[in-house]
Design goal:
The protein has 166 residues and is of the alpha/beta class. The protein has helices at 10-18, 29-41, 78-91, 113-125, 134-143; strands at residues 2-4, 23-27, 48-52, 64-70, 92-102, 104-105, 132-133, 146-153, 159-165. The strands form two sheets. The protein has a seven-stranded mixed β-sheet with strand order 3-2-1-4-5-9-8, with helices on both faces. It has a two-stranded parallel sheet with strand order 6-7. Helix 3 crosses helix 5 (134-143). The protein is globular, with a radius of gyration of 15 Å.
Length: 166
């Protein structure tokens, strides 16, 4: 599993506790140092590793079964998200999957309210970020070469988009 922009390592740690597979976390150097401490404290340093890099410019590697992208897409422009989806696909093995967790808007971009309001935060706090609709995510995934694209609604403020490498 590859966790792109894995923050503190909380998801990587949870996935590693639930599944024996090894993982790579890909984040900036400063964030990797923080996550590494959490990973070591959880006793998972033998299965969860970190690698510093820039998700916009650096390759992720290849041969992953799963790429997990959480709370990243809202910081990027539509063009950057399409490129991110292409990089995710390139890093997967033939039947691998991508899972994206983020604020996901309905088609009219007015709901859920928390995701619509978060788009304002991204307007002020990023160069080109926003909250995006399931249709936008689906188009990026399909253009990047994913099939079986699905929107999974979750309780709370975020949702999932999934796709399978075709």
């Amino acid at each position: 599993m590859l966790d792109v922009g894995g923050g503190s390592g909380a998801y990587s740690i949870a996935f590693a506790k639930a599944n024996r597979a090894s993982q790579l976390r890909f984040s900036t150097a400063g964030v990797c140092r923080i996550a590494q401490r959490h990973i070591e404290n959880a006793g998972l340093a033998d299965r969860v590793t970190t690698r510093a890099g820039d998700l916009r410019t650096d390759a992720f590697g290849e041969g992953y079964d799963l790429v997990f992208v959480s709370a990243i897409c809202h910081m990027l422009s539509p063009e950057e998200n399409l490129e991110l989806m292409r990089k995710c696909r390139a890093s997967l093995r033939a039947d691998g999957r991508v899972i994206i967790q983020d604020f996901i808007l309905e088609a009219d971009k007015t709901a859920p309210t928390s995701a619509a309001l978060f788009a304002l935060n991204m307007l002020v706090g990023t160069a080109a970020g926003s909250s995006y609709s399931a249709e936008e995510y689906g188009a990026w995934l399909e253009r990047a070469g994913f099939a079986d694209v699905r929107h999974v609604r979750l309780p709370g403020h975020t949702g999932l988009m999934t796709g399978k490498k075709s």
